[in-house]
Amino acid sequence: MANRQSISINEPNAEWLKFQVESQEYASHSEVINDLIRQRRKEEEADLIRTRALLIQAEQRIEKEGYSKLSIEDIKQAALNKKG
Predict the structure, then answer these.
(1) Nearest in space to 20 (alpha carbons), one of 29, 8, 11
(2) For the chain, what is the domain count?
(3) CB-based contacts of 25: which residues, under 8 Å, 6+ apart?
(4) Is the separation of the CB atoms in 26 and 39 below 8 Å?
(5) Mean pLDDT lowest for which of 24-33, 42-51, 53-62, 65-74?
(6) How sure is the predictor about 2, in pLDDT bands with cuts at 50, 70 and 90?
(7) Which one of 11, 24, 28, 73 has the largest count of C-beta atoms within 10 Å of its C-beta?
(8) CA atoms of 62 and 12, how far apart (whole Å)
(9) Which helix (H) or strand (E) holds 33?
(10) Positive or negative CA dihedral for 43, 22, 30, 7?
(11) Are the C-beta atoms of 55 and 61 separated by less than 8 Å?
(12) Rounded distance, CA 25 to CA 40, Å?
């Protein structure tokens, strides 16, 4: 069952929302909002999957190579050297 909500949006977003419906891209304002929410949730899920993969890679590297012997200052300096 749909949950009825009331939201306030600024004028530029209201115009964009209106255009989406008028151009028949979507059937209603609700459809646009629900699609945007679905897209954002997919992005968040993909970000979470990427973060988990990076954590697993880091754990595997630590198991294989051990922890870094570099100090925080050494790491900062190395990062600055890469930039410049």
Answers:
(1) 29
(2) 1
(3) 32
(4) no
(5) 65-74
(6) confident
(7) 28
(8) 49
(9) helix 29-65
(10) positive
(11) no
(12) 18
Distances (CA, A) of 80 to 68, 70, 72: 18, 15, 12
> Is 4 a member of any domain?
no
Six-digit token string for 54: 């990076």
CB atoms within 10 A of CB 20: 19
Query: What is the C-alpha R_g of the chain?
Result: 23
Instruction: Please check whether residue 76 lies inside any domain of the structure.
Output: yes
Determine, yes or no, domain membership for 25.
yes
Q: Is the pTM for the entire model greater than 0.70?
A: no
Does residue 3 belong to any structural domain of this protein? no
C-alpha separations of 15 from 18, 19, 21 in Å: 5, 6, 10
Q: Do 68 and 75 touch, CB atoms closer than 8 A? A: yes
47: containing domain: 9-80
Tokens of 74: 């050494």
